[in-house]
Amino acid sequence: MISFQPLPRRAIALAAAASIAVLTGCSTLSGPGAPTATTSSTAEDTVISDDLAVLEEENLEAAIAHLVEDVEKEFGATVSLAIVDGKQDFLAGADGSEPAWSTIKVPIAIAALRDGASEELVDAAIKESDNDAALALWNQVEWTEGSAQHSIEDLLNSFDSEVETDEAFGMSTWKVKDQARFASHLGCIPEAEYVYDAMSDIVDWQKWGLSGLDGVHSKGGWGLDEDDGEYTSRQIGVMPVDGGEIGIAVSASWQTWDDDNSYLEDSGYDAVEDISAAALDEIASRLEILIEKALETGELDPVNDCSETSRLAPVATESSADSTEEPAQESGN
Questions:
Q1: Are 272 and 231 in contact (CB under 8 A)?
Q2: Could you tell me if 56 and 271 are in contact, meaning their C-beta atoms sit under 8 angstroms apart?
């Protein structure tokens, strides 16, 4: 069984969730920070038992739908969840069409390495979620292939994963279903090996949710959409299991505007950050057990045949002289 680092106590999580009702905002003068990884107890046995009961009485999709509904009620969030194995997609909640934030750095890093980018930049962009490093990787693809947006879209499309890229790449739309599809094949892509390994070495202060699961390769992203006041924390992950790998993607979001469509104080933004880490921790701990049980019953069939994995198109050999303008940078991560 994949072991999980201790999670926040549910009592603390509930208190934080209650505070969101009145303190769900941030200052427009400060960019979004990161949720803080915390330690405490795992999800309560009674909650796990309820999840497993739904799985046994119905199926995995019903069980993750139960999980999502439970977490949404407890944490006041809108949750999107996808699991992809070698046969099908399992979806629950919303579609996760909020900004991709730093999860989009995974395909950016893969494309950039193919175009000669340095591994040091990949380490910074993936392990530490450094935005400047990610911008340098994006520019590497832009200068080499003429359009970073088209290159990233082509890369993902070749693995049946749709994306709508944006010049401010963190604002790209990459739904959880499409993220999990790509993640399920990540270990089969030779060009992705370095990125795949980096996703298992995330800095300690970002180890919440999927990143807190031992053995899971993951990348998180978080940020505030200033157009609608929605704060989102999301993750893309690959779970190695006996016989192959499972792709996972999760997103949780909160509204941070008050009734007058204005932001509240920094203390409210801190509350959103804390509750997002607690919510993703809760999802990950419960999801791990459901996946293990579904593997035992045969409902999940891991991706294990890399011969059926799509291969990336050849790397472009000419640079575009007209592609030197840097994309706009978003304030999230």
A1: yes
A2: no
DSSP 192: G
Starting from the edge strand earliest in sequence, which strands make up the sheet with 89-93, in order?
89-93, 78-84, 244-255, 230-241, 217-225
Residues 203-226 have pLDDT tens digits of: 999 999 999 999 999 999 999 998
Contact 215, 239 (CB under 8 A): yes
3-state DSSP of 92-106: EECCCCCECHHHHHH
- Degrees (nearest 5) of the Cα angle 280, 81, 194? 75
> Which of 213, 216, 220, 179 has its CA nearest to residue 196?
216
pTM of the model: 0.83
- With vertex at residue 72, the alpha carbon angle to CA 69 and CA 76, rounded to the nearest 5 degrees, is 155
* Token pair belonging to 7: 């999670």
Q: Residues for the chain: how many in total?
A: 333
Half-sphere exposure of 75 (CA within 13 A, CB side): 32
Distance in angstroms between the alpha carbons of the first and the last residue of the chain: 31
pLDDT given at position 175? 99
